[in-house]
Amino acid sequence: MGAHQPTTCTKVSALAQTTGCSRSNSDPLPRDTACRAVRWPPVKSEPSDQDQTARSALHAVSRNSRVGLLQVEGGGWCNTVRSCRDRATTRRGSTRYMSRFKVFSGILSDDPLMNPDFYNWNRVKLRYCDGGSFAGDSEFQTLNKTIYLRGQKIWTAIINDLLNKGLNHAAKVLLSGCSAGGLAVFHHCDQLAQLLPEAKSVKCLSDAGFFVDLTDISGSNTIRPFFGSLVSLQGIAKFLNKKCVASYGDPLTCFFPQYAIRYISSPFFILNPAYDMYQFTHCFVPPSSDPSGQWSKCKLNQDECSAAQIEVLQGLRNQTLKALEPFNLSTGGTFINSCLAHCQSELQDSWFAPDSPRLGNKTIAEAVGDWYFERKIVSETDCPYPCDSTCRNLPSKNQVWVALQSS
């Protein structure tokens, strides 16, 4: 198994010179935002000129046109004029700088030994380049350039392109995503389901996208003002769930999954570590809360954490589990392990392998499959860190970050 080469998907045409991401050209519309790739079978008519809006997706095609898995790429956010301007000239801000090839592993693998339930589905990776979890629509001037933040339009362009390629014929669909892509799944799950009224099953999986409205170790909240500036700059408020906003009276609150999840009607699966590495290092113990650097070694290597620090770290787990309490398990599922990890569905070692993390003697792949195909109810929550010995087989934190940065 270890020697198996994961699927590599390729685009079949050159990248466009203009993209619909955070970019600095004169066209505000996402005209080239998802790749012109292998068609979803069957296609009953040739694509129209409008299908040129498709350059931000990589496709792996199955002979079965009735099943489709869409996986939303992660990659952080930009919440200031400067950070979005800088992002616009990188692969996180424009398809112009993205690679033509991507390795499909984990939930995207085409090997039944590595991805038993979804290996033969049509699999599409949605490339991420707007810095706002595909949720905004705004523009601003900076240094004599216009930066367009068109996440919502990019999402719409990609999905419309896939519908024209045959997604509209699918009977079973799974929308998944990691990190910022996992957050996007919370905000687009019901939108996708509404576009597929004939599908028998449209379900959603968020991997490491359950970002908690979190109090850090100093008693402050770092993530809320960060998301606040993100929502404001990128014009996200008008696209958030209207019932949620009406209930809380605050769009920012509804950007957090723990509040938005109450208003999602589609079946949903939350895959998240109780000690998510991103939230641990950026939100629970952000640099502002640790000016003396007492947590530096612990954040770089969990084996360096003292007993006192591990005790403090339980606060992250407690807040995460508290935030999950409103989640409806009648149609939903959870896999909340105690690994210090971030994004476990994309990496083969954590998705499905002999030494993958387990809860209830199930790998993540088995748990997700049981939930999607309704073989069993899946509601798994791990014991407190560091009790789970199966986590020890995961790659080191540095290896995980390298893998995520290359995605």
UniProtKB/TrEMBL annotation:
<dbReference type="InterPro" id="IPR004963">
    <property type="entry name" value="PAE/NOTUM"/>
</dbReference>
<protein>
    <recommendedName>
        <fullName>Pectin acetylesterase</fullName>
        <ecNumber>3.1.1.-</ecNumber>
    </recommendedName>
</protein>
<comment type="function">
    <text>Hydrolyzes acetyl esters in homogalacturonan regions of pectin. In type I primary cell wall, galacturonic acid residues of pectin can be acetylated at the O-2 and O-3 positions. Decreasing the degree of acetylation of pectin gels in vitro alters their physical properties.</text>
</comment>
<dbReference type="GO" id="GO:0016787">
    <property type="term" value="F:hydrolase activity"/>
</dbReference>
<keyword id="KW-0378">Hydrolase</keyword>
<dbReference type="Pfam" id="PF03283">
    <property type="entry name" value="PAE"/>
</dbReference>
<keyword id="KW-0961">Cell wall biogenesis/degradation</keyword>
<dbReference type="GO" id="GO:0071555">
    <property type="term" value="P:cell wall organization"/>
</dbReference>
<comment type="similarity">
    <text>Belongs to the pectinacetylesterase family.</text>
</comment>
<keyword id="KW-0964">Secreted</keyword>
<keyword id="KW-0134">Cell wall</keyword>
